[in-house]
Amino acid sequence: MTNEAKQVWEQMLPLLETELSILSYDVWIKTIEPFEVRDGKLILMAATEWGKNTVNERYLPLIKAAMKRVNSLLTDVDIISKDEKEKFAEQAETYEIKEEPIVTTAEPMNINPKYNFENFVVGKSNQLAVAAARAVAEEPGMRYNPLFIYGGAGLGKTHLMHAIGNAVRTSHPRLKVLLVSSEKFVNELVKCLGQRGSGSSFRDKYRSVNLLMVDDIQFISGKMATAEEIFHTFNELYDANKQLVFTSDRPPKNIPDIDERLRTRFEWGFTADIQPPDLETRIAILRKKAQIQKYNISMDVLSFMAERISSNVREMEGLLNKVILLSQLNETMPSVELAAEALKDYSQKEEGEITVDDIIDATCKVFGVRREDLLGKRKTRDIVEPRQICIYVITELLELPLTTIGNIFGGRDHTTIMYARNKVEENLSQQKIIDDVNNVKNMAYKK
Ligand code: ADP
Ligand code: MG
After folding, report:
1. Domain match, 243 and 305 both
2. Residue 394, domain CATH
3. What is the CATH number of the domain that holds 181?
4. Separation of alpha carbons 162 and 151, rounded Å
């Protein structure tokens, strides 16, 4: 079982589960094992010959559709039975031997071609990060080093990192590019430190890279035992003019428990944040994602979806995929009705429920302030008060983690959000505050 097949299959399962009866799912789908991806084809293994035939007859279109949603680069699905496995594996071996001379680099580069600059939609919320990422890809190591990109979940940080990787591979094919999660980075380091010759194989590996990208660097928080080694690795790369790129869900100054020197190092280069996209950008993203899958979806359906999921592009994309899958199954065009049906599965987004955006818009209207100011950094009183009210109403009406709210409000720390909420709560005896809160709520529900 190869990893790629396993990964794809694991992401397909939830899609299939929602489309089938529990019985069919348990009997026919759950018993399938992902075998491998070969020549762009996903090969799945049914437990028996009977299983293979049944799946081929009944579920193949559904499985194909789910596969396309998960990885649009895969072209087809083949179902084999367990008995055929050996025969199949032998063929694979001869095939691999033939291919061997082509494989040159020892380290797989780990860059997903799906995530490139061409299919990343640029809007006000991310233009700075995109510009910096493009500059880095053009001239790695020359400007903006390190590049530090931060923003909330599902806003495209990982996508941008892969885009840098892809662009560098095209324009500077000889540079060695490495993209790792911070977990993998730290795990490898720990493993090497445990061996004799402490850390040298780790350093050799990372030192030979021209562009090192570490995703979700906030997870090194608290890993003080390895801080020294991490610091030196980054320093060596930096001193040798190698490009470093980091992403994080918060700015360097808000990552708790890290080596101060490391924090300073992160801030040395260029720091760019990604904000949740506005409605217009969300619609453009949905349109792009639909186009990639060769789907033409009407404007009213796109805006219906974009209006309902506002702060996480990944979720919005999940909804789009669901709509496409439903439309394929029903053999109809994607419609608002279908989108509404797909939306039902998003438990937290019940119909008629208000969203963060509703509350933000309402606050702007009630106080006559601009959205950028409300979510931005200005600390004048005419902004701070509405901001606190807005945060209070969000915490009261929606069950969102404080860190998420912090991200929506320009990457503020969750303690800041807690402070704002408590501040309003303390003053709820004042008539003015009560009125403000009620006005915002009423306006949000009116929408
Ligand atoms: P993060 O790493 O910030 O959590 P990802 O990079 O994994 O987010 O993005 C989640 C999904 O949203 C990906 O499928 C990505 O392609 C998509 N996405 C986010 N922002 C954009 C954008 N501006 N244009 C196109 N796709 C986007
Ligand atoms: Mg990510």
Report:
1. no
2. 1.10.1750.10
3. 3.40.50.300
4. 16
Helices (H), 195-253: 200-207, 227-239
Q: What is the pLDDT of residue 263?
A: 92
For 343-384, write each residue's pLDDT tens digit: 886 645 444 578 899 999 999 988 989 999 999 999 999 999
DSSP class per residue in 336-362: HHHHHHHHTT-TTS-TT---HHHHHHH
| Residue 343 counted as domain residue | no
**Pocket of ligand 1 contains residue 158 by CB under 6 Å:** yes
Q: What average pLDDT does the structure give for the chain?
A: 86
Q: pLDDT tens across 294-307, in order?
A: 888 999 999 999 99
**Are 162 and 267 part of one and the same domain?**
yes
The pLDDT of 102-114, averaged and rounded, is 57
Q: Are 21 and 12 in contact (CB under 8 A)?
A: no
- Which atom of ligand 1 is the closest one to the Cα of 159? 6
Does the beta carbon of 285 sit less than 6 angstroms from any atom of ligand 1?
A: yes
Q: With 80 as the cut, is the pLDDT of residue 312 above it?
A: yes
> What would the pLDDT profile of 31-41 be if each residue is shown by its tens digit?
899 999 888 89
Residues pairing with 179 in the sheet = 213
Q: Whose CA is nearest to atom 20 of ligand 1?
A: 156
What whole-number distance in Å separates Cα of residue 152 and Cα of residue 175? 30
Please report the DSSP string for 173-206 in residue order: TTS-EEEEEHHHHHHHHHHHHHSSSTTHHHHHHH
Residue 98 has pLDDT above 50, yes or no: no
Any ligand 1 atom below 6 A from CB of 161: no
Which residue, by CA, sits nearest to atom 16 of ligand 1?
159
Which H/E stretch holds residue 37?
strand 33-38
The pLDDT of residue 229 is 81
Is 346 inside a domain boundary?
no
Beta-sheet pairing, 147-151 with 33-38: unpaired
Cα separation of 274 and 251, whole Å?
11
Mean pLDDT over residues 208-227, rounded? 88
Asked if the bond preceding 146 is cis, omega within 30° of 0, the reply is: yes
* Full domain range(s) for residue 179: 127-274
C-alpha span between 28 and 8 (Å, rounded):
18
235-246: pLDDT as tens digits? 989 999 999 999
